[in-house]
């Protein structure tokens, strides 16, 4: 006479055996529980990105295909009509030119000055702590307050021209001249953010091994060759990071233009973001402004992909 083993009760937590087979595997395994925990941890970020990044981006693309006149309560599908209008709009072309000038000036001056300051601070001279604090303090100052102060300094009778007058020079009206307004805006922005890039470069420079530089000197390399072939190569990942941040930031400038020049004189400082603001909130052309936003997004995406693609050729990766 054969006896049948008792079936485990539900309270013991033991797996229930199948007839003539292996024990049934529970659905919530350790791996699935671990994956579920990870999804729950990142779900707030995913939901936030979907609600405040992906959703608005899709909405802007949809609006760009329509002629949306809020005052007239008109919302008409026009397809690529807004983009065709952009291609023939002289104001849009002027904003592209102004954006290019601002971006090139900001990237060149900001990165060059930040790297030069970081190299100076890396020499461990006396007073470097005060020097570092002096250049980093504008980073923590409110952007609008910083811009307003510089707006007074750059006026025709402001502090900059008063200082030049002491030296016997006659300074221009910096923010009202066709050739000086963009320069003034670039200088204000460079001095605002150069401290952050300086700190990033300084941290990278302090991570360069002294043994490599000393070995190069023993082989007869001069200071410039050591800096170019060793130091720049080892801090190239930081240079890439700073370049991407600076380029993207230069394409999103708005507060400085709105406070200092309001896009003038003429359209010499009307960058893309300020042109978008004018079309949307001054002229109430939300569909046309959405097309400008889509073009701006495409420019940022393309430039970022180009910079990221160049990393394989110019960025050193330690193996």
Automatic annotation (TrEMBL):
PROSITE patterns: ABC_TM1. Residues 1-25 are annotated as: Disordered. It is found in: Cell membrane. It is a multi-pass membrane protein. PANTHER family: ABC TRANSPORTER PERMEASE PROTEIN, DIACETYLCHITOBIOSE UPTAKE SYSTEM PERMEASE PROTEIN NGCF. Keywords: Cell membrane, Membrane, Transmembrane, Transmembrane helix, Transport. GO terms for cellular component: plasma membrane. Residues 1-15 have a biased composition (Polar residues). SUPFAM superfamilies: MetI-like. This is Sugar ABC transporter permease. It comes from Actinotalea ferrariae CF5-4. It comes from the Bacteria.
């Amino acid at each position: 006479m054969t006896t049948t083993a008792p079936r485990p009760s539900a309270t013991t937590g033991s797996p229930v055996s199948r007839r003539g087979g292996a024990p049934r595997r529970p659905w919530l395994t350790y791996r699935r529980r671990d994956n579920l925990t990870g999804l729950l941890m990142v779900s707030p970020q995913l939901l936030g990105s979907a609600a405040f990044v992906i959703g608005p981006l899709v909405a802007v693309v949809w609006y760009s295909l329509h002629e949306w006149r809020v005052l007239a309560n008109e919302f008409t599908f026009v397809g690529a009509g807004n983009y065709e209008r952009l291609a023939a709009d002289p104001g849009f072309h002027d904003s592209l030119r102004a954006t290019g000038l601002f971006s090139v000036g900001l990237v060149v001056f900001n990165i060059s000055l930040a790297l030069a300051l970081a190299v100076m601070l890396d020499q461990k001279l006396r007073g470097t702590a005060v020097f570092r604090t002096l250049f980093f303090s504008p980073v923590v100052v409110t952007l609008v307050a910083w811009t307003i102060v510089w707006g007074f300094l750059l006026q025709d009778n402001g502090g900059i021209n008063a200082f030049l007058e002491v030296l016997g020079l006659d300074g221009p009206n910096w923010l009202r001249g066709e050739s000086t307004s963009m320069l003034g805006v670039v200088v204000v922005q460079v001095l605002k953010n150069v401290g952050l890039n300086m700190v990033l470069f300084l941290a990278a420079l302090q991570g360069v091994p002294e043994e490599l530089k000393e070995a190069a000197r023993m082989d007869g390399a001069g200071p410039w060759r050591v800096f170019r072939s060793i130091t720049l190569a080892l801090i190239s990942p930081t240079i890439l990071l700073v370049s991407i941040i600076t380029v993207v930031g230069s394409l999103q400038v708005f507060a400085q233009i709105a406070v200092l020049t309001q896009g003038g004189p003429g359209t010499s400082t009307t960058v893309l973001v300020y042109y978008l603001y004018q079309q949307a909130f001054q002229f109430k052309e939300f569909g046309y402004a959405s097309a400008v936003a889509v073009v701006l997004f495409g420019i940022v995406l393309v430039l970022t992909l180009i910079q990221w693609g160049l990393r394989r050729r110019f960025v050193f990766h330690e193996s």
